[in-house]
Amino acid sequence: MKKDHRRNRDDVVWSRFFWCTIFIVISCVLFTGFNFSSFRFLFFPPPERLQPEIVPRWRMDAVATAGGHGHDSPGKLDGKKKKVWIRETVILPDQVLLFLNYPPSSAATSPRLLTRDDLDCVYNFSSSPTARQKNASRPPNRVDGEIVRCPLLDRSAAVSLSVKSADAYAGGEVLLNAPPALAWHSLAYEALIDRDNTTVVFVKGLSLRPDKLYNVSRFECVYGWDFTRPKFILRSEVISIAQEIARCRTPLSLLTNPFNSSIKVTVRVKGRVTLNSVAQPRPNPEPEPGPKPHQLCICTMLRNQAKFIREWVMYHDEIGISRWFIYDNNSEDEIESEITLLTGSGYNISRHVWPWVKTQEAGFAHCAIRARPSCEWVGFIDVDEFLHLPSGQPLPEFLTNLTEGTGGLLLPFQVGEVRVACHSFGPSGLTRPPTKGVIAGYTCRLFAPERHKSIVRPEALNSSLVNVIHHFHLREGFGFVDADRARMVINHYKYQVWEVFKEKFYRRVATYVADWQDELNVGSKDRTPGLGTRAVEPDDWSSRFCEVNDTGLRDEVVSRFSDPLTGTLPWEDEAETMRQGL
Questions:
Q1: What are 80-125's pLDDT values in tens digits?
Q2: Contact 306/349 with Cβ under 8 angstroms?
Q3: Beta strands 95-101; 187-193: pairing state
Q4: What is the SS3 assignment for 523?
């Protein structure tokens, strides 16, 4: 009996132990599977599949503390309700950028955007050992939407904004304090969410060499409101990285949550500090399926080119360009009003404020993403460059014949890029800017072409978006062809009269090109022979760079565009007509 009783008791103990073990194992499996699935859904969502959203606790906590950089809370200021506040400050080499944050607009409460007349830049020199005064104020260089550009008086001075207009705040003038300034040389500055739901991040401070892809395992992408607080950030993998462009896998919660409009993204080199950021990922709208509305578009980056843009747009419209993307790189002239006049006359132009210095390659990559939904082909040229087809054939027709017919040649790839040689024109004996425009004014050039520019099919671009200004890297299966110089060239009015040309000494826009005032790479082909590093006009400037008298494009323009009675060209008189019509 005792043995049977002991045996029964042992059976009960082992039975309980067995079922407890089974319960623990199943619980662990379920718990592990849930956490793995949550992690996978959050960071690695499969393409084109609807996944449930996991809302992490950090996001709810961070919403309550978002916006805190040690400066004024966005809600109140001295007991008054704020309508706008400064969310970021960035110090560039010659100016200070202040980013305004406006409250969400609605039909009932839509805040008026502040203008240059509403604001003063206020400087506090208390921390500067060399300053002779404690405070100073200056008008902004320019105000473009949420971006205020203030003069840089002293790099150690704290900059704030004085709002002068009574309707901006109840009670009259108010001082907007700014967060600590971020250094430009180490900063994520722009971000776009691409159509595959990856985030393209544009960043300074990685010190990557041009025209080269890097090992992604050294980097990671970081999303959040405050990168100094680890529990408020998300990390994701880098898919590709080159130059100043990183492509990141976007966390699913950012794609599905409407409260994520204030989240920023940056890039971290593993084992090193996370770079600061002002880059808020924004989606790039994609059109409805079907043919793209524009066969041929142009992207350009410019500074202070208002007096030249009218001729450039109107000429290219005549040869088949139908859409322009203008990246304004800190202009201080009337470029905005000129573009407004042109758009009012039916030209499809958008101006994108791009304050970032020496970022032309990044700007062109950004533009390629924006242009892709609506443009079959995109040309990347400057405002002093004009596409010239001596036969008079429309440019879209020429591209179609070249890329689909390829002159009877059988190519082992699809054509994704057409490279066009550039002829550089000189001052042509002039000492003052030509009144009829650059095409009619400059007619003498160098014999041999200098470099090339490209017209690309955005769908053919490599996902890394690597480019060296003149051309992009292409996807596998695509290649480039060179346009026959007898059929299409670019007239590059590079060496204009001195008062125009000397502006090139201010700053070169390309990332990997030294500014001409720097004693660096003095023998580079980018520099003008014999000028050195100072903007001093040579005695023989007006006769330089003249080896071939080339009036081909001038003769065509005069024949096709000039008024038969007055002989004037449309860009000579249309500006005044457009102004009178407004």
A1: 445 788 999 999 988 999 999 888 765 455 667 899 999 999 999 8
A2: no
A3: unpaired
A4: coil
The one-letter code for the residue type at 72 is D
Buried b / exposed e over 471-510, threshold 16 CB at 10 Å, is bbbbbeebebbebeeeebbbbbbbbbbbebbbebbebbbb
Instruction: Give, for 10, the enclosing helix (H) or strand (E).
Output: helix 2-43
CA distance 78 to 35: 46
Query: Residue 97 is encoded by which pair of tokens?
Result: 């950028």
User: Cα separation of 463 and 192, whole Å?
Assistant: 13
Query: Is the pTM value of this prediction over 0.85?
Result: no
Which element (helix H / strand E) includes 202? Answer: strand 198-204
Helix (H, G, I), strand (E, B) or coil at 194: coil
Give the separation between CA 436 and CA 60, rounded to whole angstroms: 62
Number of neighbours of residue 286 by Cβ within 10 angstroms: 11
Token output for 214: 């890097």
The string of DSSP letters for 256-292 reads: H-GGGGG-EEEEEETTSPBPEE----EE---PPSSS-
State pLDDT tens for residues 389-409.
998 899 999 998 888 765 545
Question: What's at 569, amino acid-wise?
Answer: L
| Residue 146, burial from CB neighbour count under 10 angstroms (0-12, 13-18, 19+) | middle
Least Cα distance to 284 among 204, 372, 363 occurs for 372
> Which stretches of the chain drop beneath a pLDDT of 70?
1-82, 105-111, 127-133, 166-173, 258-260, 288, 405-410, 505-535, 573-582
